[in-house]
Amino acid sequence: MTRHAGVWDVTAALDGEAVRDLSEFVTVADGLDHPEGVASGPDGTIYAGGEAGQIYRIGADGSLTQLASVDGFCLGLALDADSNVYICDNTAHVVKRVAPDGSISVYSSGTIDRPLATPNFPVFDARGNLYVSDSGSWNGNDGCIFVTRSNGTTELFTDKVTAFPNGLCLSPDGHWLYVVVSELPGIVRVAIEADGSAGAIETVVDLPKNVPDGIAFDMDGTLYIACYAPSVIYRLRPGGPLEVFGYDWQNTQLAAPTNIAFQGSDRTTMVIGSLARWHLTKIDVEVPGAPLHFPSIEYEGAKCR
Questions:
Q1: Strand 2-8 vs strand 198-206: parallel, antiparallel, or unpaired?
Q2: Helix-then-strand count for the chain, H and E
Q3: Is omega for the bond preceding 241 within 30 degrees of 0, making it cis?
Q4: Concatenated DSSP letters for 197-211?
Q5: Between 265 and 163, where is the model more confident?
Q6: Beta partners for 58?
């Protein structure tokens, strides 16, 4: 594993003040069951998961609708062009697909040789490939990343990122898969080769004495990093330096922040999960979030090889 130019250490960032005051982070929806997974749909609607398997849709006014329950602890989620929701079910050890009518199916269970152990976060690329982090066990150094191709076939993408791979996002140009490695702790990126295979792996940022969880880009290529512990969100602009975007030492408004999504058609509202509590937090941002990929998936059932 190599380090690309501009690797930043967190020590200096923690010594400075946060870019945004904590009072600017407000509750957008309450009454959820310890939401970790948060994602934006093709129309900018926010979806979230619950600890007991709930799949929520959050209206612009913060109202909640429960679409379904997968009966397992929901971690990360992603959506396709038809607003089917793909959920990392940590209880069943599979990625499930929830259709808009509430019907549930298994989208991926890993491969025959390596079943999913701890599916944690999914993200689609422009070709309809769904990358899924498998965190493995804490302190087990046994994680990996799978990819389910648009034809439903699941393959091992890389077994070189092992220290609890967690949140994922694609670089704005689509050439890199950025990966939260919670026990590194820090962020790495994996090159996506022209044939779809994994290439070089580079360290992006070290986050000592933090437990990073979720990441997202904005349109300017700034990377936002939510940390489960301490309750902090970092901002890493292209070329650095690393900054504290928001910090909650009381762990109440930003309460073990996990996944990050951008709400609305203009993507100028950042929404953050709070695993330690029952709400989602939002803050307005000047630069819109980078657009996600919402592919049309012709789904005929999960396959593996």
A1: parallel
A2: 1, 26
A3: yes
A4: -EEEEEEEEE-TT-E
A5: 163
A6: 46, 64
**Distance between CA 277 and CA 73 in Å, rounded?**
15
Which of these, 135, 97, 115, 142, lies nearest to 305 by C-alpha position?
A: 115
For residues 2 and 135, give the distance between their C-alpha atoms in angstroms, rounded to a whole number: 21
Alpha-carbon Rg for the chain, nearest whole angstrom, is: 17
Angle at 180 between CA 164 and CA 45, to 5 degrees: 120
3-state SS, residue 22? helix
Instruction: Find out whether 277 and 252 touch, Cβ atoms under 8 Å.
Output: yes
Residues constituting the chain = 305
Residue 293 has pLDDT above 90, yes or no: yes
Q: What is the rounded (10 degree) CA torsion for 216, 114, 303, 173?
A: 30
Could you list the beta-strand ranges (E) of 125-278: 130-134, 144-148, 153-158, 165-170, 176-181, 186-192, 198-206, 211-217, 223-229, 232-236, 242-247, 257-263, 269-274
Can you tell me the mean pLDDT for 71-76? 93
Q: Which domains are assigned to the chain?
A: 2-298 (2.120.10.30)
Question: How far apart are alpha carbons 302 and 267 in whole angstroms?
Answer: 32
Q: Whole-prediction pTM value?
A: 0.94
Q: Which two tokens stand for residue 8?
A: 């930043």
Pick the more confident residue, 2 or 173.
173
Of 191, 160, 187, 164, residue with least CA distance to 175: 191
Looking at residues 258-267, what average pLDDT do you find? 95
How much is the average pLDDT of 67-94? 95
